[in-house]
Amino acid sequence: MGTFTVCFLLVSVLVIGTSGTSRTRGTKYEPNWDSIDSRPLPEWYDQVKFGIFIHWGVFSVPSFGSEWFWWYWQGKKVQPYVDFMKRNYPPEFKYQDFAPQFTAEFFDPKEWTDIFAASGAKYIVLTTKHHEGFTLWGSKTSWNWNAVDVGPKRDLVEEMASALRANSDLRLGLYHSLFEWFNPLYKLDAANVFKTNYFPTSKTLPELYELIVKYKPELLWSDGDGNAPDTYWNSTGFLAWLYNDSPVRDTVVTNDRWGYNTICHHGGYYTCNDRYQPGHLIKHKWENCMTIDSKSWGYRRNAPLSDYLTIKQLVASLVETVSCGGNLLLNVGPTHEGRISPIFEERLRQMGQWLKVNGEAIYNTTAWRVQKDNGTANVWYTARPQEKAVFAMFLEWPSNGSMILHDPVVKQGVTQVVLVGHGAVQWEPVQPSGLRALLPPPAFMPGQWAWTLRLTGAT
Ligand SMILES: *[C@@H]1O[C@H](CO)[C@@H](O)[C@H](O)[C@H]1NC(C)=O
Ligand SMILES: *[C@@H]1O[C@H](CO)[C@@H](O)[C@H](O)[C@H]1NC(C)=O
Ligand SMILES: *[C@@H]1O[C@H](CO)[C@@H](O)[C@H](O)[C@H]1NC(C)=O
Ligand SMILES: *[C@@H]1O[C@H](CO)[C@@H](O)[C@H](O)[C@H]1NC(C)=O
Question: Which domains does the chain have, with CATH numbers?
Answer without folding.
Answer: 3-359 (3.20.20.80), 379-456 (2.60.40.1180)
